[in-house]
Write a structure and sequence with these properties.
The protein has ten helices and five strands. The protein has 262 residues and is mainly alpha-helical. Helix 3 crosses helix 10 and helix 5 packs across helix 7. A three-stranded mixed β-sheet has the order 3-5-4, with helices on one face.
Length: 262
């Protein structure tokens, strides 16, 4: 826009159509844009990495202490007490105060490859997926069941299974095999609100966990898939039959010596 002088001496505003005025971004500012974007991406990556590291350290802190200390409770015990209003019977019983028959019966019934795998029995998982009639024994290992019973909740959601797999890896990394089995024998539910070998021996057979016989141990192992519906001290025909199978598996595996090298 400009001014021109009229014949009478006045001024007239005119539009400058021959030149356009553009506001240009300085070259230095243009070169700063990719740098700013990269800085933002790096900031977000650092934040994500810090969050992941914090979660790893948190879960390690959640798992590692129980290598040496007795868990005072478990997620399943809290669920039974708080959500189902069930009286919980639980008393920690160390490995050397638990009958070796019970340890062996549980391994024979639940996870025969327990001394050798690293948390997952991939062959059993594949067989369970292929068995359309339903597997007789679940594909979850004792290590996976410890992760679930101690820290998680029942169910089959992908989130829970993912957390279970991750916690299983931590448990197998930081705990020796004997410790994993010792904790399982203390947090497994053997009857409604009856958690662990110590409570099971007293509540169901009126004896200490150390003095459980192979017969009694096989009955306890037989009800593990559903301890709320099956009873070890008042066994149904199905439970007695399953207990007989478990005793047969114990003998085929070599008895309690099967766990000597753990």
């Amino acid at each position: 826009m400009g001014t021109t002088r009229t014949p009478d001496g006045g001024q007239h505003l005119t539009m400058d159509t021959t030149r356009t005025h553009e506001r240009k971004i300085p070259e230095s500012s243009r070169s700063d844009l990719p740098r700013a974007r990269n800085a933002e991406v790096n900031r977000k990556l650092r934040l994500l990495g810090g969050t992941v590291l914090a979660l790893i350290l948190l879960t390690m802190a959640l798992v590692l202490p129980w290598r040496w200390f007795a868990p005072p409770t478990s997620a399943f015990m809290l669920r039974a007490r708080l959500l189902n209003d069930t009286r919980v019977h639980y008393r920690w019983t160390p490995w050397d105060r638990i009958s070796p028959y019970l340890a062996m019966a549980v391994v024979a019934a639940e996870d025969q490859k327990f001394p050798f795998h690293h948390g997952f029995d991939f062959q059993s998982i594949a067989e369970a997926l292929e068995d359309k009639g339903g597997p007789r024994r679940g594909a979850s290992t004792i290590s996976q069941q410890v992760a679930k019973n101690l820290f998680l909740w029942p169910g089959r959601s992908y989130i829970r299974k993912g957390l279970e797999a991750y916690l299983t890896l931590l448990i197998e990394t930081f705990w020796p095999k004997r410790r994993i089995l010792e904790i399982y024998l203390n947090v497994a539910e053997f009857g409604p609100g009856i958690f662990g070998a110590g409570a099971a021996g007293r509540q169901l057979f009126d004896r200490s966990a150390l003095h459980l016989s192979l017969w009694e141990a096989s009955l306890l192992a037989a009800v593990l898939p559903n301890p709320k519906r099956m009873s070890a001290n008042r066994p149904s025909a199905y439970v007695r039959h399953r207990a007989g199978e478990i005793r047969s598996w114990v003998h085929k595996l070599g008895g309690t010596h099967y766990l000597d090298d753990m």
